[in-house]
TrEMBL record:
Membrane-spanning parts: 72-91
Organism taxonomic ancestry: Bacteria, Pseudomonadati, Spirochaetota, Spirochaetia, Leptospirales
Single GO term (MF): ribosome binding
Source domain of life: Bacteria
Coiled coil: 7-49
Protein name: DUF883 family protein
Keywords: Coiled coil, Membrane, Transmembrane, Transmembrane helix
Amino acid sequence: MEESKQQKTLIDEIKLYEKKAKEIERRAKEKYMEQVSDIKQKLGKASEDASIKAKEVIDKVGTYVKENPQKAAVIGFGVGLGLGVALGWIFRKK
């Protein structure tokens, strides 16, 4: 009789731990989903900000090129030449 009572107590204790484990799992999932949602919002905001900045830079470059076409051509030539020399030097070493 005593052994059956101990088994019942043990079973009840196991069920209690199982309920606690499920509650902890549920809270962990909620916390995880909150963090994922926050990260998605932050990434969306950063992407939006980067897009706006890129558009501003493109507009500024376009305006500069329209106002100073000769300088823009010389700068473009210099950048292209510099990149070509740098890439040629890098690939020649390999």
